[in-house]
Amino acid sequence: MVIDLQNISWVRQGKQILTDVSWQVNRGENWCLVGLNGSGKTTLLNILTGYIWPSTGSVTVLGQRYGTVKLPEFRKRIGLVSSSLQQRFYGHETAEEVVMSGKFATIGLYDGVEADDEQRARELLVLFGCEKLTGRQYHTFSQGEQQKVLIARALMASPDILILDEPCTGLDLLAREQVLAMISDIASKPDAPTLIYVTHHIEEIVPCFTHTLLLKEGTIFETGATEQVLHAEALSRFFGVPVEVHERENRKWIVANL
Ligand SMILES: Nc1ncnc2c1ncn2[C@@H]1O[C@H](COP(=O)(O)OP(=O)(O)OP(=O)(O)O)[C@@H](O)[C@H]1O
């Protein structure tokens, strides 16, 4: 099993933020985590990456139970792309330097870089159609280009799990579709990491996401195969408004009937 969360609760300042969340992710599955603002998605990711400790429950990732594992080293097995990461780059690094820094799970290039690393970083940029960014500074990239470079960066350490926390926020239609195509491409590789994709938007759930978890007010509202979870009745209850679900080429979008 890749992820095994058992009965996780998290309480802060007397407020129950997560309540009895149990979630299992098996190898070969890719998950979408969908929730409204404040539903606890970021908190759940922070528990998954060991940055916060649950008030109750147990966290086992890649067979390692948290509390018995050295997290700074272990985290190299988990790639993370989040908007907070995007803000931490100041921008004078080139695309390949940003990608290479992913090997060390650091922001800058503070550790020794080997010739192989540079080669791999360039290969990742080529693989995802970003070769034209090579040699250019990060701050000159569009948001979509920045996001693609950060995803390539997260792959540099060949992680077992890749967490993508709202990677399409702020992207225009074309950039969003390019990022989603890149993610689908990653998922199609034989040695692909397990993907965990966080979003508010149903239309971002591309077919590679085999499973979906709906999180509402800190509890699991619905979980299972994406096909089963994304139906009008459950989504209407989830969003609290009647919704219609439309589908084309294995991709769904919803319309709220207000
Ligand atoms: N350290 C903290 N202390 C107190 N409350 C917190 C803390 N961290 C998060 N919360 C609260 O927990 C709830 C869930 O927050 P969280 O950031 O996990 O939601 P989210 O689903 O990621 O939301 P968004 O989609 O807006 O990013 C919110 O009501 C938030 O205010």
From TrEMBL:
Its organism's taxonomic lineage begins at: Bacteria, Bacillati, Bacillota, Bacilli, Bacillales
Q: Which GO terms describe its molecular function?
A: ATP binding
**Pfam short name (any one):** ABC_tran
| Protein source organism | Ectobacillus funiculus
The family annotation for this protein states: Belongs to the ABC transporter superfamily.
Which keywords does this chain's UniProt record carry?
A: ATP-binding, Nucleotide-binding, Transport
Give the protein name, as stated in the record.
ABC transporter ATP-binding protein
Asked if the record carries the keyword Transcription, the reply is no
Q: Where in the cell is it found?
A: Cell membrane
Residue span, ABC transporter domain:
3-242
Which coarse location class applies to the principal site listed for this UniProt protein?
A: membrane
UniProt cross-references to InterPro entries, sorted A to Z: AAA+_ATPase (IPR003593), ABC_transporter-like_ATP-bd (IPR003439), ABC_transporter-like_CS (IPR017871), ABC_transpr_CbiO/EcfA_su (IPR015856), Metal_Ion_Import_ABC (IPR050153), P-loop_NTPase (IPR027417)
Q: Which SMART domains match?
A: AAA
Task: Report membrane topology.
Answer: Peripheral membrane protein
